[in-house]
# Entry
Amino acid sequence: MCDIYSVEKKVKEVFAKRLKVPFEIISSLDSSVNLLGKKIGLSHREIIYLIYDLEKEFDITFPQNNLVSEDTYTLQALSSIILVQINVRMKA
# Structure
């Protein structure tokens, strides 16, 4: 069974790999910081690639309604969505 901490750690690993940044740097990030904001500054294109990588890694699909709000683009929010999708898949 997955928990939010293991999912968030894996999300950070995928994020580090996508950006070609050492995991230690990504793991020290505040998970509630917006990835599109000034502190991290990802482009919308980079977010799309990250979401694609996360969908492949976790064998899930992000619901479109979750992708509309920029509030979704934190490591914490992405991890929560992934955990919900994993649980939905496991119940099916």
About this structure: The chain has a mean pLDDT of 91. Residues 4-91 form a domain with the Non-ribosomal Peptide Synthetase Peptidyl Carrier Protein; Chain A fold (CATH 1.10.1200.10).
